[in-house]
Amino acid sequence: MDPASVIVIAGVIAGSVYMTLPKFIPYFQSNTQSLYWIIGLGLLARLLLMIPDPFLEIDYVRYFWDGAVINVGFSPYRWSPEQVISGNAPEELIVLAQQSNGLIDQINYPYVSTIYPPLAQAIFALTNWISPWDLMVWKLVILMFDGITAVLLYVILRQIGRPPVWLIIYWWNPIVIVEFSNAAHMDVLLLPFLVGAFYLTLKGRATFVQGGLLACATAVKLWPVLLLPLFIRTNSDKRKTVLVIVSFTIMSTFLLWPFLVQTLIPASGLHAYGVGWENNAALFHILLAGLTLAFDSFGLFDLDTDRVLRTCVGLTIILIALGLNVRASIVPGDPQIMARRIILVIAALLLLGPTMYPWYYTWMVPFLAILPLRSMLIFSAVLPLYRLQFHPWFMENSWVFQDIIVWLEQGPVLILLALECRREWKTDRARSRNNRYAA
C-alpha cells in the first residue's frame, strides 16, 4: 500500500477516536490518576513520533537554511535558495549551501525567499547555532514549546475552574502530535505567546506584557494581529486598553519591520504567498471558478480574478474579526466567549482562505480545551485526507482532489459550523428578548 494511503487511513481512524474523548471526560474526572496517564501517554506518543523522519513533509529544511543564513550574517529575506544554487549570491552563502550536504536542494519553492517572520527566524537561528542541520535538536525545541503550551493551558483550566483533564483535548490531539513531533512544523512557536496573552486577559491584567505577547505571536505568524480587537474589547479600563494598543504597536513594528519591507519584492516569500498560493481550499477554489465565469460572461477579461477574490476574502476575514467584537466588552472572567471568538476567527482563516494546511488547525486546538466545539473537533478526523494529494493516483488526477476530496475534508466542518452558528444565533435572540421583557 502506498505510504500516503497508510498515513491517511491511520490519521482518519485516530481523529475519529479523538472526537469521542469529550464523552469520557466524566470518567477521567472520577479517576485521580487520569491526568498522569493523559500527560504520560501524550508525551510517549510525541517521543515515538520524533524518531522517524517526517512523513511527506520537508518544510523543516527551509527552517534550517534560514537559521544558517542568519548565523553567517545575512538576511534570509534577501536571497532565495535558487539564487544561491545558481551562484547569484554572496560567496559565503554559496559555501553554506555546499556545507548543507544537499539539503538546500530539498527546499520547497526555492525561487522565493523565506516567508517566516523575524521571531520565528530568531528561533531558527538559535537552533542552528546549537547544532547545525540537526532535525532531532529542532524537534526537541518543538517539544519544549509544545510542553510550555500544555503547562499554560493547565494553569488556565485551573484558573477557570475547569477540570484539568480537559488538557487531553490539546495533548492527545492527533493533528497536533503528528504535525509537531513528526512533521516538525514551526507553528508550535506561536502557541505559548497566544495562550499566554489569553491567560493574562482572564486574569484582568491588560498591560504591556499582554500586548507584547500578542505582538510576539504576530512575529511568528502574521494572523494573530486579527485578535487585537478581542483583547482590546475585554477591557473596560481605557488606560489598560491604551497600554495594550501601545505595547502591541511598538513591539510588533520593531519585530516585523525587516519582514514587512520585503512585501513589494516579487521574489519574496510573503509576496508570493499573498498573491499566488492556493492549496487545499474548498470554498476559495469554487468561488474563484464562479467569479472567473461571471467576469468572463461580462467580458471583463482584463481583471485579475484571483487578486480580486483574495482582496475580498481578506476584507471579509477582517470584518469577521471586527464584527465578532462589536458588542459590549467581554467580562475578563468569561473564557468561553473569548475562546469562541478566537476559534471563529481561526475558522474563518482556514475555511475562507486560499490555503488550508493541517498544521494551521493546531492554532485553535488549545482553545478547544476551553470550548470543545464539535464542528472544530471533527477537523481532526477529516484533515488527514489532505495527504491524499501525495498519492500517485491523485497526483495524476489532481482535479479529483481539488474538486471532490477537499469537500469531503471540509464539507462536514462547514455544515456543523453553520448549524452551531444558527443555534447560537437563536439562543442570543431568545436571551435578548427575555432581557427586554425583564426590563
What does this protein structure show overall?
By secondary structure, the protein is mostly helical. It has helices at 3-18, 21-30, 34-50, 59-71, 81-85, 91-99, 118-130, 135-159, 168-171, 174-182, 191-202, 208-218, 228-233, 238-260, 269-276, 282-297, 305-323, 335-352, 365-368, 374-377, 379-382, 392-396, 398-438. The N and C termini lie far apart (66 Å).
Strand count, sense and closure of the main sheet? none
What portion of residues belong to β-strands? under 5%
Task: Output the radius of gyration.
Answer: 22 Å
* Whole-number mean pLDDT: 89
Topology summary:
Layout: H1 3-18, H2 21-30, H3 34-50, H4 59-71, H5 81-85, H6 91-99, H7 118-130, H8 135-159, H9 168-171, H10 174-182, H11 191-202, H12 208-218, H13 228-233, H14 238-260, H15 269-276, H16 282-297, H17 305-323, H18 335-352, H19 365-368, H20 374-377, H21 379-382, H22 392-396, H23 398-438
Helix pairs in contact: 3-10, 4-7, 8-11, 11-12, 12-14, 16-17, 17-18
Considering the chains and any ligands shown, give keywords for the structure.
single chain; mainly alpha; 23 helices
Could you give a short description of this structure?
The chain has 439 residues and is mainly α. Helix content is 67%, strand content 0%.
